[in-house]
Design goal:
- The chain is 75% helix and 0% strand.
- The model has no long low-confidence stretch (mean pLDDT 94).
């Protein structure tokens, strides 16, 4: 299994795009944003969280 920062970032991006309403998505993204050793993965996770916040404000 490829465990590179690029691959982990891609997976996080897909999770945030495909399953934004899943209850585990914010937890996963928050964990990776705070605890991943890669700056790239932390940035991707933070961007995913920002997207979830944006989606939450856009839903009427």
């Amino acid at each position: 299994m490829d465990d590179s920062p690029e691959t982990r970032s891609r997976y996080l991006r897909l999770v945030s795009l495909l399953w934004p309403d899943d209850t585990t998505t914010p937890t996963l993204l928050t964990d990776r944003a705070h605890h991943d050793e890669s700056d790239q993965v932390r940035t991707t996770a933070s961007e995913g969280l920002a997207r979830l916040r944006w989606l939450a404000t856009e839903i009427v």
